[in-house]
Amino acid sequence: MLDVVYVLDSAQRPCKAASPSINETSFPSEKRMSIKYELKNLANGKAGVLNGMSGTIGPNVLDISHLTRDFGVFTYDPGFMATASTESKITYIDGDAGELLYRGYPVEQLAEKSSYLEVANLLINGVLPTREELDAFQRSIMHHTMINEHLLRFFQGFHHDAHPMAMVSAVVASMAAFYHDTTDIRDPRHREIFAHRIIAKLPTIAAAAYKHTLGQPFIYPHNDLRYCANMLNMFFAVPCEPYAIDPVVAEALDLLFILHADHEQNASTSTVRLAGSTGANPYAAISAGVSALWGPAHGGANEAVLTMLDDIGSAANIDKFLARVKDKSDSIRLMGFGHRIYKNFDPRAKIIRSMCYRVLDKLGKSDNPLFELALRLEEIALHDEYFVSRKLYPNVDFYSGIIYSAIGIPRSMLTVMFAIARTAGWVAHWQEMVSDPNMRIGRPRQLYTGAAKRDYQPIAKR
Ligand code: CMC
């Protein structure tokens, strides 16, 4: 049995104050290694020093990369509750304060002043683009919107009621087949083309999946439209009659996409990084991210919230529903509530809730019964000891499904919308990882609890 004790070294320094600088690309190593910890095996007295590392802002981390070499042990941390899997300069979350920064910029400011493509550019490149840079980026993205005609035929293999997330994941993976010999991940220009292509083509693939479920003809992209307007056109236009893009809807979509664009090392982004760390084709890595996002604990929660609200039916049933949520023998959860990082309001949920009022009003749908029900549910949960004591607050998915539905996005497409928006973040993280000369394959360890070594028994003797 191993007993260990951690002793904090006297050289401890507090976390650096919040002064993020987007132009700062590296930090002096002495700043990052300012804290030391002593780790001692109480069984044999062997001790060693572990370095603490400080980021720009946020908690310090303990560098355990030599732990196995020095102590012969691994760490055990199911669900990565206390493990930083990487160093990153892209997104910062302060879960206690309910704060989210993309490259240092508060998401509230970006939601108010920026656009999705500008945010995508910021996430990937680290700095806000100049007018010329943004125009060039937008032109490049809109230049790549078409998908190969052969790729379109892929959809014919799916039944009409296939879930769009399954189709999108499969078709994105199949892009690796189209670009396997033209994507050299060590070539910065190839990486850039990949980034622009995947951001450009995801809406086209999503629209093709949607049209397939409807049995309607595919609508080709219009590169003279803006990113979200083009998406709406591909989703809702039909060849036989004109379709007018509602600017209120296009603006709402753009704002939702900004809010979903990145969220540091979440499950799908970590999946993209892990798959990409093998040197796999990046389209395959993004496809892995789409699959990971689909789960109801992650991006699939937006669809699950609407199903939950339907099941609850009316405010009169909320108490009964919450009693089930709190009953540990019942497996249902209050979907759209709780978060691994946020122990306060998810700032994105706050923005989307106020956006719901604005957009529903502009669309003449202010008496939306699902929104009324969600507001009441939130109010009751936030005064309930169960949720208060566990610091469970509405997350980004609590209200996003309501607004997506109000602007006409069907329920089965909600997580697909999340995937389109999150592509910018996935690409930024993949780029950050692959352009690091020290990239290593991601390979966690395990605590083995299976059978010890034993001899094979012939079938007659079992
Ligand atoms: N409803 C009821 N109880 C909950 C909920 C919930 N939504 N979330 C957490 N809890 C309870 C949980 O039962 C546990 O209680 P206890 O300590 O008594 O065992 C405690 O709170 C801690 O929960 P946890 O499951 O250990 O927390 P986690 O960090 O592993 O899970 C989560 C985070 C998001 C998976 C979880 O809160 C959840 O399942 N929420 C509902 C699904 C959801 O809305 N997901 C979207 C997340 S935001 C979008 C995104 O970034 O993907």
Concise structural overview:
With 462 residues, the chain is α+β, with helices and mostly antiparallel strands. It has 19 helices and seven strands.
Present the secondary structure layout.
Layout: E1 4-8, H1 29-32, E2 35-41, E3 47-53, E4 61-62, H2 67-71, E5 91-94, E6 99-102, E7 105-106, H3 107-113, H4 116-125, H5 131-143, H6 149-153, H7 164-178, H8 188-214, H9 227-236, H10 247-260, H11 267-276, H12 282-293, H13 301-312, H14 318-326, H15 347-362, H16 369-382, H17 385-389, H18 396-406, H19 414-434
Antiparallel strand pairs: 1-2, 2-3, 3-4, 5-6, 6-7
What share of the residues lie within helices? 40-55%
Distinct helical segment count = 19
> What does the average pLDDT come to?
92
The largest sheet is:
4 strands, antiparallel
Query: Strand pairing plus helix content: what structural class?
Result: alpha+beta
Q: Kindly report how far apart the N and C termini lie.
A: 34 Å
